[in-house]
Specification:
By secondary structure, this protein is mainly α. The protein contains 14 helices and two strands. Helix 3 crosses helix 4, helix 5 runs parallel beside helix 8 and helix 12 runs antiparallel to helix 13. It starts with 5 loop residues before the first helix and ends with a helix.
Length: about 325
């Protein structure tokens, strides 16, 4: 049996507070590293803005999904559901411009595969995108303000058009969401210059073209804004003003192409009444070959494209900067 040593016992008692403090610090460090050990209130810091947005999204879910399968399908919906069902059933899918883009049929077929095939499941994807459309303005709060974002979401929520087409199997809500993805990713990229926003823009643009032909109009809107913004920023730089002489030839080529395109369209419009003649058998024949009439416009587009390419080559150093 070991003998009692008063000095050793005294040291142990003296070190007890330090050991307890060290143990407490270790437990605190483990708690910090363990996410599940953190108090819930750290993740549940809500303000009235967040509560308002959550409320709007919940109302959007209700208004987009409630009784969405009870209404009989319309003519357009019958075509979309039929071809989606054929694709889901293994009968294949063949794209036709009459049906717009293929995205709707693929996502509807996926809904059939996941949830079964009926009127309700056919409308699940478009209803989900309708809810997403209501929530998307939240990402614009840095540009239109917190109040502006919540007002925009509220307008999408109560809009009869948006609500109707969020419960209707068509391409409208899909292409609007994809267009907004392109728009928002453009704003973020112009502000932060991070590559991930280019990927978001590319994804939104690709899905937009997979959905509906209106994507060409959206591309013209976004593209014209970016080109005008680029030219305006370049015009104020000394290097651009100093190199204007080098760019006169590309601008002249672009002007020639635009002149040919505009002139051919003008002549075509003014002579449309005199371009047809009634044949003896009652058919209508065009005076002159249509391909020949379109040659100036085709040449104009080729010249215009070449001039733009030439201009980009000349401006490459400034574009890179």
């Amino acid at each position: 049996m070991s003998e009692f040593n008063p000095e050793t016992e005294t040291e142990i008692i003296a070190d007890a507070p330090a050991v307890a403090e060290s143990t407490a610090e270790t437990a605190t460090e483990i708690a910090k590293e363990d996410v599940l050990a953190k108090p819930l209130n750290r993740f549940a810091t809500l303000d009235w803005y967040t509560i308002a947005y959550v409320g709007i999204i919940l109302v959007a879910i209700v208004t987009r999904f409630y009784d969405v399968g009870s209404r009989v399908v319309s003519h357009d919906e019958s075509l979309h559901t039929q071809y989606s069902y054929q694709f889901y059933n293994g009968d294949g899918f063949s794209h036709t411009p009459l049906m717009h883009g293929p995205f709707l049929f693929h996502i509807t077929a996926a809904s059939y595969w996941l949830f079964g095939h009926n009127d309700f499941t056919a409308r699940i994807p478009v209803a989900l995108f309708g809810v997403l459309l209501v929530a998307i303005p939240y990402l614009l709060r840095d540009w239109i303000g917190r109040k502006g974002a919540i007002i925009a979401s509220f307008v999408f929520l109560i809009s009869p058009y948006v609500t109707y087409y969020s419960r209707y199997i068509r391409h409208d809500v899909y292409v609007i969401v994809f267009a907004l993805i392109c728009f928002i990713s453009t704003l973020f990229y112009l502000r932060e210059r991070r590559d991930k926003y280019l990927w978001w823009f590319a994804a939104g643009l690709a899905m937009m073209y997979c959905t509906k032909e209106v994507s060409f109009i959206y591309t013209a809107i976004f593209g014209s804004f970016l080109v005008i913004r680029l030219l305006a920023r370049m015009a104020i730089t000394p290097r651009f003003r100093a190199s204007l002489g080098v760019m006169l030839l590309p601008f002249a080529v672009i002007g020639l192409g635009a002149l040919l395109i505009g002139g051919s369209r003008f002549l075509e419009g003014t002579s449309s009444d005199a371009e047809t003649a009634v044949m003896e058998d009652g058919e209508v024949a065009a005076e002159g070959d249509e391909i020949t009439r379109n040659i100036p416009a085709v040449v104009g587009w080729v010249i215009l494209g070449g001039g733009l390419f030439f201009l980009v080559i000349k401006m490459r150093d400034q574009l890179d900067d």
